[in-house]
Design brief:
Largest sheet: 5 strands, parallel
CATH topology of the largest domain: Rossmann fold
Radius of gyration: 20 Å
Order of helices and strands: EHEHEHEHEHHEEEEEHEEEEEH
Number of helices: 8
CATH superfamily of the largest domain: Response regulator
Structural class: alpha/beta
CATH class of the largest domain: Alpha Beta
Strand order of the largest sheet: 2-1-3-4-5
Strand content: 25-35%
Number of strands: 15
């Protein structure tokens, strides 16, 4: 059986999909979610094969949910959306399945046939993750693990990011969260206008910088508003200064 999660903030839309999916003998709906955070938690806990993911939802958009996933293990995702120019361009660029509201049963069946092909081929949802992380669509929120739960943090509250092999420590005040991502990927998702690389393993929120002091050989010391001191490498100095509008 192909295990399916439906995520849409409109009950009639969820019911429509659930009703049509019930007619598919090889598919079973294992859960339904009405906002982005609940959708992300369902995906994390249930590990479905397919997710029908509404683009415009409270808390996290469908694109933001997709952006948080690990490409290799992501379920196949069908984005469901009323016309959103940026989203549709991202879908087409990455060859992602999507349903454009209002869609009819014939269009739904064509999507289901493609889903079956993808699942049979054991294709991951990496393309959908790439669509969610497309440049020019920065995320204002980040989903991070906190114990056994997933929590949302505002990107503006993040002070700095610290790479650790295939993980990144996300520093928010005196809290630290660990996410499985690369530093550059996370900076791109959160917005390069907001975060600047200051070292090969460190990026900082421009708004979190309190002051800078020159050191030696072109390096600088960055004092964050929290009191944390970081090192700005000369390799990234000019780019960081440009972001700060020197």
């Amino acid at each position: 059986m192909i295990r399916v999660v439906i995520a849409d903030d409109e009950a009639p839309a969820r019911e429509k999909l659930a009703r049509w999916l019930a007619d598919q003998a090889d598919m079973v709906v294992v859960s339904a979610a009405e906002d982005g955070l609940s959708a992300a938690q369902c995906i994390e806990q249930l590990r479905p094969d397919v997710v029908f993911l509404d683009v415009q939802m409270p808390m996290l958009s469908g694109l933001e949910v997709a952006a948080q996933l690990e490409p290799a293990g992501a379920p196949w995702i069908v984005f469901v959306t009323a016309f959103d120019e940026h989203a549709v361009k991202a879908f087409e660029l990455n060859a992602v399945d999507y349903l454009l509201k209002p869609y009819d049963h014939e269009r739904f069946i064509r999507t289901i046939e493609r889903v079956r092909e993808r699942v049979k081929a054991r294709a991951s949802g990496a393309a959908a993750v790439a669509a969610g992380r497309s440049p020019g669509i920065p995320c204002d929120r980040l989903l991070v693990p906190d114990g056994e739960q997933l929590v949302l943090i505002e990107a503006a509250r993040i002070d700095w990011l610290e790479a650790d092999d295939n993980y990144v420590h996300v520093h928010v005040g005196n809290r630290r969260y660990l996410v499985r991502r690369t530093l550059q990927d996370l900076v791109s998702q959160l917005g390069e206008a907001r975060f600047a690389r200051i070292h090969r393993s460190t990026a900082v929120n421009i708004q979190a910088i309190g002051s800078l002091s020159p050191l030696f050989k072109g390096d600088y010391e960055i004092l964050l508003r929290t009191g944390r001191v970081l090192r700005l490498s000369r390799r990234y100095r000019d780019e960081c200064f440009d972001r700060m509008g020197r």
